[in-house]
Design brief:
Blueprint lengths: L11 H18 L18 E5 L4 H4 L9 H10 L2 E5 L6 H11 L5 E4 L8 H6 L7 H7 L1 H9 L1 H6 L10 E5 L8 E6 H7 L7 H15 L23 E4 L2 E4 L5 H15 L11 H10 L4 E5 H12 L8 E4 L19 E9 L6 H9 L4 H9 L6 E4 L2 E4 L1 H4 L7 H5 L12 E2 L1 H7 L3 H11 L3 H4 L8 H26 L8 H10 L2 H17 L1
Parallel strand pairs: 1-2, 1-3, 4-13
Antiparallel strand pairs: 3-10, 4-10, 5-8, 5-9, 6-7, 11-12
Helix pairs in contact: 1-4, 21-23
Length: 526
Amino acid sequence: MKKRKTFTYVTAGLLMVALAVANTGCKQKTETTQEFSFEGYPVKSDIKLTYWSGLSGNLRESTDSLGTTPFAKKLQEETGVEIEFLHPTQLMEKEELNLLLASGNLPDIIQYDWYNTLGGPESAISGGYIQPLNDLIAQEAPNLKSYLEQHPEVDKMVKTDEGHYYVFPFIRGDESLCVSKGLMLRSDWLAELGLLVPETVEEWTQVLRVFRDEKGAKIPYAASNIEVFTGGFGTQPEYYLEDGQIRYGPMQPEYLDYLRMMRQWYEEGLIDKNIATTSETEMRVAIYSGSGGATYGWLSSTMESYIRDMQKTEPAFLLVAAPFPAKEKGEIPEFGDRDSIYTSQSSAAITTSCKSPRLAARFLDYGYSEQGKILNNFGIEHESFVIKDGKRVYTDKILNNPDGLSAGKALAFYARSSYSGPFVQEKEHADMFYTLPCQQEAVRVWAANRAQQHMVPHICATASESYEIGTIDDELRRYRKEMTMKYIMGVEPLERFELFQQGLRERGIERALEIRQLQYQRYQKR
């Protein structure tokens, strides 16, 4: 048995320092919180809160702070709460958060994926980083409290097995909003070459070969996400649910079939030779230059953005959505890329350092009020939307931006609905946001699978489980990614696949599955 290293999402030493600081300095700060009186919005308070979060890619090209946007200014005006927005360096969020936690000097609010951090939310609470929110939601967040009471299935997702609420969540207000990304190809190429949209991995192989041979595509499939094709072999890259059992894809024999096909794609030049390190920018360049004919991405920032950019010089350019691969042609795909109604990545926690937890709760609860929903989803009236025939309609500033911005990038200045945050995303937003027929069709195509049946719900580790499962998962994740790339790139022979699975066992996969099955059983009883 391989000895497990003593680290989880941060190194053991850093974690112990962070816990020590959190258990002394951070908790002491909450004993002398500043108070305020609440008689409605805008709040009357002189307290300035700090708010740490990643900066949306839709904004990053135009500003270095959410605080400079009309949305942030309007949010502070309507709530009456002054906010200093803090953002980590792009692609360094986890590393910089770890250093922040270790320092003990935390901002008041941290928007992050607390569900997948530090062994889970219960560990973050017991470790002294964030506060349990039960009392604050009951006393200071009537809008969120009401929503959770009316939606018990969401209420079940946003608390731990111990019953602790831990974030103000990002919630998708309709199932259709859970589908926003998937596979797509150049439909103008398909038409020119007499090809149909592929439904299986075998058909994808044939289409990509024609793109390479007939169109001279150097990277026929121009995307870093190749794991999406695991579903075409009947498995997944990590954990998934099958008949009430938690399974781990790389431990299934079908994962070898996936590796064998991706190795073939790599050798034939159907995917990028630098797949292990390629960036989204490089893949965009490949599509724009005609070196790529298929990709993977989002409805707005990929599909719409590519079409609008390319049609300026190549009017025939168009993209069409492809279904997630099925094992056999004509079958309903078992897997896809589907978000949960509750998306943990963009939810906000109140830290143990917060100057005024009550004020922070009132500020965050505004996102679930009627006015807060309007601001977060549609932005500012007469600027980003107007009322026509009793309905909200985005203005040309959003849908036909004079500066050539995609709708997603234009709306990001006025609302959060083109990315995410602590609020309820409305279906009405998507109905008028996705204006291209190919976008509307893509939602239908990408939703046509059984992915929801295989999604592992928001199971949580107990405080006693968190370190063990965090350590195991961290090692599994790094080992799987490293070995998968070695097999695909030919560094490791596929004949050694059994040794790879033995390596997963040595790193604790069987124990991880045992723990997760227990967590799933507890979730079912919440």
